[in-house]
């Protein structure tokens, strides 16, 4: 199960970023609220680094109203394409699993 | 990075540093920087219990380091092989197949994604430059067995090897 989560949580991040840019702590809170994280919150950082080196997300620093500056993550065009591809494959896959689970 | 001077936070970051020593330097620095920023954000103005909760929610440092290890691309062996083969061909290819071997090395070098243009030019010029210097000395002195020719040949070998080491180090740095 944790394997499945690990493979999909990256796309959950892309989906959140598709709505608007987020800073990391914000992303972690939203994912944790949906219990979408496979392991401790800290494991999001290696994932975010990989999404960035794959060119799916971009980052920039912004001042925070209270406290140190924050690194904001936003979706790139490549990330948007990757998210759309996943969305259609996931729909088919989850439909198939749902059907099999009901038998 | 203020407010991360809490003893628990410091101990946590130290454990993360210890658990991540085998990661490539760039990956490791980015990870440490991200976790430090995260803790600055979540523990600023927090009391002891909130700090302990923030650290628990983050997961163990060892778990985070393991996740980073999983996400790091393990493509390095093939890349390293290419870099070493290129430099060896460039250095010794000319002995195996005169001139053609050197050409093969130059082609490999310019196709290599881990050298910049300056390094490619240095690598390309290494053999012609050192060969010209050595032959130039022979022609100038009109005498092959002159000690200066021997010295020049040794100098040429040192330059060639230095260029090869430089190329290998540069490629290794980019692979990380």
Structure report:
- The complex is a heterodimer of chains A (103) and B (176).
- Chain A has helices at residues 2-19, 24-33, 44-53, 77-102, and strands at residues 22-23, 57-62, 70-75.
- Chain A is α+β, with helices and mostly antiparallel strands and 103 residues long.
- Chain A has one domain (2-102): Arc Repressor Mutant, subunit A, CATH 1.10.10.10.
- In chain A, helix 1 packs across helix 4 (77-102).
- Chain B has helices at 7-19, 25-43, 48-58, 61-71, 76-96, 100-111, 117-141, 147-175.
- The two termini of chain B are 26 Å apart.
- The radius of gyration of chain B is 26 Å and the shape is elongated.
- In chain B, helix 5 (76-96) runs antiparallel to helix 6 (100-111) and helix 7 runs antiparallel to helix 8.
- Chain B is built from eight helices and no strands.
- The interface between A and B is medium-sized, with 21 and 25 residues.
Summarize the structure.
Chain A is 62% helix and 14% strand. Chain A is built from 4 helices and 3 strands, in the order αβααββα.
Write the SSE topology.
The complex is a heterodimer of chains A (103) and B (176).
Chain A: H1 2-19, E1 22-23, H2 24-33, H3 44-53, E2 57-62, E3 70-75, H4 77-102
Antiparallel strand pairs in A: 1-3, 2-3
Helix pairs in contact in A: 1-4
Chain B: H1 7-19, H2 25-43, H3 48-58, H4 61-71, H5 76-96, H6 100-111, H7 117-141, H8 147-175
Helix pairs in contact in B: 1-2, 1-4, 5-6, 5-8, 6-7, 7-8
